[in-house]
Amino acid sequence: MVVGEIPESTGVLVIGAGPGGYVAALRAAAAGKAVTLVERDAVGGTCLNVGCIPSKALIAAADRFHQADNGAAYGVLAEPQLDWMALQAYLRRSVAELTAGVNQLLSAARVNVLSGTARFVSPTRVAVEDAHGLRHLEFDDCILAAGSRPLELTAVAVDGARVVDSTGALFLQERPRSVTVIGGGYIGVELGTALAKLGVRVTIVERAGRILPELDAALASVVARRLAQLGVAVRTGRSADTVLDDGLQLDDGSVLEAERIVVAVGRVPNSDGLGLDHAGVRPRPDGRLDVGPDRRLARHLFAIGDLTDGPGLAHKATAEAEVAVAALCGEPAAFDPVVIPAVVFSDPEIATVGLTRQQAEDAGVASRSFRFPLAANARARLDGDAGGHCEMVVDDAGTVIGVHLVGPHVSELAGEAALAIEMAATVEELTAVIHPHPTVSESLPEAGWGAIGRALHVHRRRPGR
Fold first, then answer.
1. Model-level pTM?
2. What values do phi and psi take at 314, rounded to 5?
3. Is 404 a catalytic residue?
4. CATH topology assigned to domain 342-451
5. CA 409 to CA 13: how far, in whole Å?
């Protein structure tokens, strides 16, 4: 054994300090385990540092600027000015405040946090490399929470200057005149919407036939209409081909103006740099890891978050962390949610939970649904956004199996919808809950009443019509 290979020991090793990893570390420490958390970048991972949090900060700032610039209908006349560097400072301050909070929690829990890149050298040992050298850690149990990174395109290489990924798009040093976003999924739509509200000419390119192709078409169509109102050009059924000096050429030969190009076409798991072959683990061709219901890869090895199947969502990783820690502590545990709510912070927002009517039909589940228009919701109208809807899907027994919303503030309703489905609530039980007025939450019982033939604030057809 050479100098530097004498291992330190830890009870639980967590690799990756994103919303799955740091929660796993806190839960394991609370269970009395000696915990070491290794992170190669910054505590909080992609979500907190360069994803969920700064992107929502950008969206919040963009909404305020846009509302001030478009307040005539409310009697508000203003000519707002945008301080781009102050905006960037707000984004960084938001991240710094939240990461400081997470670091304080880890310190209070006596979690040993190491900065560096971890790679397996045996099934129970990793080497952690940082700027100062190499150290070895021997562990009893290990939770992999290494997350994912933006997918790269061969034809459009990210250079960090003119061509950036979703991270680079958040931290541009100046406001560009025009941006072309490659990818019309939720990341591309969120970024494109925010930039358009900040006065940037935006084009979104999506190779599928419509934006947000992974979501129900009825939800996506509302957002598509709003993008058009904001002046965002959308090119569907097209792919990026060549970066030009003054634009981006598509596969049909057309050229789009593009001072900056944002590549937002998805993410890939960070499983390739972990040395998993030394741990006896082989990732699938897509980079994901096959785990059991308790998130177990091997006897003392677990994986959570973007490394595993399912949507790449922070709240999914956090829930899986709870399961993995319970399992390594010897408790019966399984990750088996009925639903995982998903939200798109577009304009208007989308919240989708459970089965759509089409998914229920494809699964052979007899169902019915009702779509309540938010044009009949007082709060949505007051907010100047009445183009959305709330659709509730129920099975033959009247059990709520899906709730799908597009409109203002609907992200805040995803939790209630998920609870209703997880608890197998009937539509009668949901509609019996008194919802406050005037709120968008009233759309939930309204859609429920419609699903059982008792629609209230919409016209009901008379028999025979």
1. 0.95
2. -60, -40
3. no
4. Enolase-like; domain 1 (3.30.390)
5. 39
